Amino acid sequence: MSDSATVSERENGLQRFRAGLWRENPILIQALGMCPTLAVSNTAINALTMSLATASVLLASAIVISTLRGIIPPQVRLACFVLVIATFVTLTDMLIEAFALDLHRALGAFLPLIVVNCMILSRIEIMASRQPASVAALDALGMGGGFMIGLITLGSLREVLGRGTLLDARVMPADFEPWQVMQLPGGGFFTLAALVIGFYLFDRRWRRQEVGA
Amino acid sequence: MMPASRRLRLVAAPHLHGGRAVPRLMLHSVIALLPVTVFAVVVFGLAALATIVVAILACLLAERAFAPPSALGDGSAMLTGLLLGLSLPPALPLWMVALGGFLAIGVGKHLFGGLGAPVFHPVLVGRVFLQAAFPAAMAQAWVAPLTGARATELPATSLALPFMSPAAPYDGLSGATPLTAVKAGDTGAPLADLWLGTVAGSVGETSALLLLLGGIYLVAMRVIDWRIPVALLATVAVLGAALHGLDAERHPAMLTTLGSGGLMLGAWFLASDPSVSPMTRRGAWIYGLAIGALVVVIRQYSGQAEGVMYALLLGSALTPHIDRWTRPQPLPEGAER
Q1: Taking the mean position of all CA atoms in its chain, how far away is CA B178?
Q2: Which pLDDT does position A2 carry in this prediction?
C-alpha cells in the first residue's frame, strides 16, 4: 500500500469519527436506535451503561466484520453480521450481569435487544463491510461516542428534572418539586424533541458563524 | 336537486370584507368568558385573580418570544392565557401556572405552526403537561368557595418559590370537588350549588350556568359552530341518563354529570376551536359525539375523576380523520358526470 493511500485512509477515518459525534449524530440527527433511547434513559446511570454497552458492541463488531469482509459471501452477509453482533451482545450482557446486577435488572430486556439496534446494523452495512478496519473502527468510535453523548444528555436531563438528582447525588435544592412526567415514557419523548430542537438551533447558528467568518 | 337558496353563489369582484377578522373573534370569546371570570374572582378571591393574571402574562410573554410583535395585537395569546387560567385549580403554585402558559403558547401553538395550525388546543397542551408533571398539585390545589379571607389572602401554596414544592401542604380540602366526591361514592354537590358554581373546582369551570350563557352568546355571534357543543352535551346527557337509569348507585344523575367538572368550559370554549375541530357539518356532529362518549367513559370507567381534558385531546386527534371521512363529494354519488 502506498503512502498517500494510508494518509487518505487516516483522514477518511478521522472525518468519519467527527461526523458520528456531531453532524451525523445517531440520536439527534439520524434518529436511529430510538427504542433504548426512549426506554432506558430515565436516569443518567442507566443511559451511561446502555450507551457504553451499545458503543462497545458496535466497536468490536465493526473491527471483526471489517477484518472478515473479504470472506463473507454477500448473499448471507446479514446473517453473518447478526451472528457477530449477537456474540458481543451476549458477552456484554454477561459482563454486566456479573459486575453490576442491579443495573442489569434495571436495563432488563433492552440489553439483549442491542442485537437488533438499527444504528449498529446500519454502521456495519454502510462502513464495516466495505472499509478497512482502521476506518471502520474510527467510524464505530464516532458513532458510539455520538450515541453516548445523546443518550447521557437525555438521561441526565430526565434525572435532574424528574428526581432532582444526578447519578443519584442530589443536585437540586431539597424542596425541588420533581417533574414526574420526566420519569415516565412521555418525558423521554418531550426531552428528546427538545434536545433535537436545541441541537438544530445551535448547529444552525454555529454554521452561520462559520460561513460569516 | 338542492333548493336554490342553498346553492353556492359566485359573484365577481370587488367583494366586501365581512369584518370577521381574528381580533374580532377573540374579542367575542373574551366577552363570553367575562361573566365567568368575574364570578370566579368573586367566589375564589385573590387565588383566582392571581392564577388568571399570571396565566395571561405568561402566554403574552411566550407569544412575544416566539412570534413577531404584531402577533400580540390579535388577542389570541390573551385568550389562550385566560382559558388556561380558568381551567387550572385556584391554589396551584403560580410558577406552575406560568410554566403551563409558556408551554401552551411555545409548544402547543408555535411548534405546531402558530395561529390556526395547532392539532391540539394549546390550552390543553399546557394543562396536560402540568397534569403529567405535577399530578399531586393538580389533584389537590383546590380552594373552598366563598371563604372569609378570600379577598385579602392568597393561599400559601400559590406563592411557592419557582420550581420548589410549596412549604405548606395544600388545603385540607383536597379531593373535595364534586366529581372526586362522586368518584368516592358520594352524590356530589347539591344541584343548585353545582350549576351556580359555588363549589370547589378549577378557577372558571364551576359555574355551569354562566358558561352556558357565554356559549350561547358565542353561537349567537356565530363565532363557533353550535353543532359541536350541542352534539357533545347531548351525548353526555343521554349516556349519563342511561347509566344512571341502569345503576343509580354507581352513576350520578344526568344533571350532576352535565353541571360538574370542566364539561361546560370544554364543550363551549375548547372543543369548538376551529383549528382543532372538523370543517364539515357532518364532521362536527361526529366529533362532538366522540368527545361526549369519551367523557362519560373516562369519568365512569377509569381511575380518573374528570375526563374532559383527555376526551378533548383524543377528539382533536380524530379531527383529521373525520375531515377525510366527511369530505364533500364534488358531485352527488351516482350522478352522471
Answers
A1: 18
A2: 47
User: What is the rounded CA–CA span in Å between residue B142 and residue B144?
Assistant: 7
Average pLDDT (B296-325) is 91
Which residues on chain A are in Cβ contact (under 8 Å) with B135? 180
* Three-state secondary structure call for residue B97: helix
**Which residue reads 369551570 in cell numbers?**
B205
Q: Given phi > 0 = left and psi -120 to 50 = alpha, else beta, which region is B244?
A: alpha
First to last CA, chain B: 15
pLDDT of residue A53: 93
Distance from chain centroid for Cα B290: 16
Angle between helices A133-163 and A3-21 (to 10 degrees): 10
* CA A153 – CA A195 distance, rounded (Å): 9
Q: Which of A176, A181, A197 is the closest to B163 by Cβ?
A: A176
A110 CB neighbour count, 10 Å cutoff:
17
Q: What angle do the packed helices B122-133 and B308-325 form, to 10 degrees? A: 140
B137 touches chain A (CB under 8 A): yes
pLDDT, one tens digit per residue, over A121-179 is 999 999 889 889 999 999 999 999 999 999 999 999 999 999 888 888 888 888 888 89
Task: Show the domain range for A185.
Answer: 3-212
* Lookup result for grid cell 346553492: B7
Kindly tell me the number of DSSP H helices and DSSP E strands found in chain A: 8, 2
The answer, for B133 touching chain A at a CB cutoff of 8 Å, is: yes
Q: How far apart are CA B144 and CA B198, in angstroms?
A: 9
Burial (Cβ within 10 Å: 0-12, 13-18, ≥19) of residue B106: buried
Domain boundaries of chain B, sorted by first residue: 23-163+195-223, 224-326
Measured distance CA(B261)–CA(B87) in Å, rounded: 10
- Residues B158 and B91 sit within 8 Å (Cβ to Cβ): yes
Q: How many domains does chain A have?
A: 1
| Segment 37-66 of chain A within 8 Å of chain B by CB | none
Cell of B213: 350563557
**What is the C-alpha separation between B63 and A122, in angstroms, rounded?**
42
Which one of A177, A183, A196, A201 would you mutate to disrupt binding with B, by most B Cβ within 10 Å of its Cβ? A177
What does the block give as the cell for A150? 445523546
The confidence score (pLDDT) of residue B5 equals: 53
Instruction: Please give the share of chain A, as a percent, with pLDDT higher than 90.
Output: 44
Check if A173 contacts B (Cβ < 8 Å): yes
Answer positive or negative: Cα dihedral of A189, A190, A191, A192. positive
Running DSSP on this structure, what letter comes out for residue A129?
T
